[in-house]
Each structure stands twice: as structure tokens, then as C-alpha cells.
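Go through this pair.

…
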Amino acid sequence: MFASLTSHTFLRSLPRSQPPLHLRSLSSTIPRFYSDPLLIRPGPPPLPARQQREFEELVRKAQTQVEGSAEEDAHPDARAPLRAEFEGEVNPVTGERGGPKREPVGRWAEGEGDWSFKGRVSDF
């Protein structure tokens, strides 16, 4: 009798409650779609067309004022930008094309000395 219970045909005839493991998803999360009503959130009521245009214009003006004033409002203690050591695309000393316009690290003195970059000194 035991042999008949374990026979392949008997096991096939039993109803399956779950699909085989190779057909099931291994993820335990439930997929959500953008049309899901859980993602619909309340918002402010829409403005009339005239007021919406006025609002967008005011926002645009405020953003351009902030962008323009960012360059002008530098801190008084901020360092001035470094000036280029040469004009054009080719460095006359090294012959490098398209490189930095100024040597990034300079020496304070000839021979053994400290190196500096934008006023900050390091000793190697």
C-alpha cells in the first residue's frame, strides 16, 4: 500500500495549493502600481488660470533674483579667484594644451621649501 501512495500518478492527481517553487516569485513584497489608490494624495485646490500665471511669474522672478545675487553676495573674507599665468590654450612653459591656466602647486622658496596652493602651505 505504501508503494501505491508514493507512486508518481497518485501525487500528480492531488490538487496543488501552491505553484511549484520554480514558478513562484521569491519576493515577499506586494507589487504596487502608480494607478494604485494608495498613492493618490490630497493636494491644494487648483488656482484659477489668471492667478496660476501670476503665481508662476512671481516664482520665476524670485528664482532669477536668487541666482543673480549668489555671485554678488560673496563673503568679505572670501579669497579672490586666482589669475591665469598665461593667455591662450597652450602653456608656454610646459607646452601642455588645454591644461590648467596656472601651476596648481607653487614653492615658497628655491631649493628645499614649503609648497602652497591658494595660500595654504604644506611641508613635504
Remarks:
- The radius of gyration is 36 Å.
- The mean pLDDT is 71.
- The longest strand covers residues 115-117.
- DSSP finds three helices and three strands in the chain.
